[in-house]
Amino acid sequence: MVxxxxxxxxxxxxxxxxxxxxxxxxxxHEGDPAAxxxxxxxxxxxxxFNVNKVGPKHCGVVGRKAGSLPDFANYSEAITExxxxxxxxxxxAFLADPMGFLPDTTMQYAGVPDEExxxxxxxxxxxxxxxxxxxxxxx
Length: 139
Description:
Elements: H1 6-26, H2 33-40, H3 77-80, H4 88-96, H5 98-101, H6 115-130
Helix pairs in contact: 2-6, 4-6
């Protein structure tokens, strides 16, 4: 058996060291709730966390079935018939282009083109929903 050249050994060693770093560098942005709070000002004209406005309240939106709040009567037929669950993937796609993702939605908003900003907003929605001062259980 022929021993690998010193250059080959260095290359293998470097690959072993750099592989985990490449995975870390390629990992998606997880969302910054503080930046999401700033983004939420764009939502606040139509939405709030614990009360319905023009749009439904956002307490517990992440993980909720679309169109399922019993105390909000103004859902579009597109939302109520969608069978969507507002998980992070669906929220990300919807927030990118609401009318493209779900034609006939009544949410007349152009969307958030920047994925990092969408993930920040989703992180903020999750953080606020978990805060019992903002979103008491049962609300």
